[in-house]
Design goal:
The structure is a homodimer. Chain A is of the alpha/beta class. Chain A contains ten helices and seven strands. Helix content of chain A is about 45%, strand content about 10%.
Chain lengths: ~250, ~250
C-alpha cells in the first residue's frame, strides 16, 4: 500500500522543504510534490541540508504550476488548515484522516494531502478543491504549527494507520520471565536470612512484613536472570558483612 | 492535570531548544527543563527566534547540572531512545507512554521525559535512571528524528491521552442535515424535469437511472441549505435554457 502524496503548495522556505522530506522519510512516506515554490526550483542548498539524508525526496520531488495539476491523478484529496474556513466539508484530525486514507489506498485510489504556504496557509479556493479538511488538535492559544511539524504528524499517523507502527525494538528478554518456583525459592531464602539476623522485631509482625515485601518483589516482574542477580547481590552483602565482622574479631 | 516535564539533556543547538518550546506550546505543555546545555545559559537569540511566540517557555526553563537533579522531584521518568540499549525495562511507543503518563498524573505524580543530545542521544547511565524507555515507530531505514520533532510527537500524544485532542473546529452546519421530505421533494422535482425533456431514452430505463441518481444524491449528505442551493442551480439552468431558446426564436 503506497503512502499518501505530500503536496506543499507555494512553500516559502527551502529549510521547510528539506525538513518536510526528513519527516516523511522518518515514517516511510516517499512521494513529494511541490506547487509553485516561491524561490523556484531546484531549491537552495539549505533545503538539501535540512533534509539530512532524505535529500533524494527533495531532488525527486515533482513540481507543478497549480494545485489542480498536482492533484489531477489522485482520487482523494485532503486540505490541511489551521482555522475554520466556513466550507461545508468534513473536518478530521490526522488520526481519523489517515485511517480513512489507509482504507482508500487499499483499493486503486491515490491519496494526496495539501499543505499551504508557511505564512498564510491554503487559499479558500484551494481548500475547495479538496474532499475533506484536516486539522490538528492544537492548543487554541498557540495554534501555529511549523510546516514540517504538520507533515510529521501526518506521516506518523499514516504509519500508525497502515499498521506499521510497532516500536522498532522491544524490552530485551535474555532469560524470560522467572518461573514461580524460582520466585518462591527467592522469597524463602530472603525470609530465612532475615530470620537469622532477627529482623522481625516482634514475631507477630513477620507475616505482614513478608507479605508486603513479596508484593514489592512481584511488582518487579522479575526474569530468571533478575532473580539470580538479586540473589548474588544479597549473598555478597551477607558474606561481606560476615567477613567484616570476622576481620573486626567479633565472630561470623 | 498538569502535563509532563520535558527534559532536554545536554542539548547542542539553540534552534532546537526554541523549536522544542514551540512544539510543546502547540499541544499545551508548559514545563521545560534543561540539563547542562552545551552553549551555556541563557541560550543564544536563535533559540528565542525559533520558539516563535513560545519564547516564554525558553526563558522560563529550569536549568540543572545533572539528570538526577532535573528529575529529583518527579515520580515517573521516561527515557527517549532511538535504538535498543540492552536495558531490561519496558519499551513503549509515545501513544502508550503518554496514556501511562496520563494515568500517573491523575494522582500526585509528576512525569518527566528525557531527551538526549542531538548527535548521540542519552548515555546508557542516563537511560538507567528512567523507569521506562520510550521510542518512536520510525522507518528503521531512516530512524534519525530531529529533537524538536520527537518532542512534538510526545506533546501531541500527551494531548490525545489527556482527552484534549478534539479538532479545534468542526464542519460548519448552518442549516442542519436535510429532512427526508426535502430530499424526496428534490428527487420528484428532478425526475419531473428530466421527464419533461425526454431524458429517459427508453421508459424502462427510467427506474434504474433514477435509482442510481438518488443514491448519488444520498451520498452527498445534503443539508437543507444544500438542497435549496442545488435546486436554485438547476432552476437557473432550466430557465437559462428557456430564455436562450426563446431568444433564438424556437419557443420555450
Amino acid at each position: 500500500m503506497s503512502g499518501p502524496v505530500i503536496i506543499l503548495v507555494r512553500p516559502q522556505m527551502g529549510e521547510n522543504i528539506g525538513m518536510t522530506a526528513r519527516a516523511m522519510a522518518n515514517f516511510g512516506l516517499r512521494r513529494l510534490r511541490i506547487v509553485a515554490p516561491r524561490d523556484g526550483w531546484p531549491p537552495a542548498e539549505a533545503a538539501l541540508q535540512a533534509a539530512a539524508g532524505a535529500s533524494a525526496l527533495v531532488t525527486g520531488a515533482e513540481v507543478f504550476p497549480t494545485v489542480e495539476a498536482a492533484a489531477a491523478d489522485l482520487t482523494r484529496l485532503f486540505a490541511t488548515t489551521a482555522r475554520e474556513r466556513g466550507q461545508a466539508k468534513p473536518v478530521l484530525t490526522p488520526d481519523l484522516a489517515m485511517a480513512e486514507a489507509a482504507r482508500h489506498s487499499g483499493g486503486a485510489g491515490g491519496v494526496g494531502i495539501l499543505f499551504g504556504p508557511e505564512r498564510t496557509g491554503l487559499e479558500n479556493d484551494e481548500v475547495s478543491l479538496a474532499d475533506t479538511v484536516m486539522t490538528f488538535p492544537v492548543d487554541p492559544g498557540f495554534a501555529s504549527l511549523n510546516l514540517a511539524q504538520a507533515v510529521l504528524l501526518v506521516a506518523y499517523e499514516w504509519r500508525r494507520a497502515s499498521g506499521a507502527a510497532a516500536a522498532p525494538f522491544e524490552l530485551p528478554q535474555e532469560s524470560g520471565p522467572a518461573r514461580r518456583e524460582t520466585v518462591f525459592a527467592f522469597f524463602a531464602f530472603l525470609e530465612a536470612e532475615l530470620d537469622r539476623v532477627d529482623y522481625y522485631s516482634r514475631p507477630e509482625r513477620k507475616t505482614i512484613i513478608m507479605r508486603n515485601f513479596r508484593n514489592i518483589l512481584h511488582r518487579m516482574n522479575l526474569s530468571e536472570q533478575d532473580v539470580r542477580s538479586l540473589r548474588g547481590v544479597i549473598d555478597a552483602l551477607i558474606n561481606g558483612g560476615r567477613r567484616r565482622r570476622s576481620r573486626n574479631g567479633d565472630g561470623g
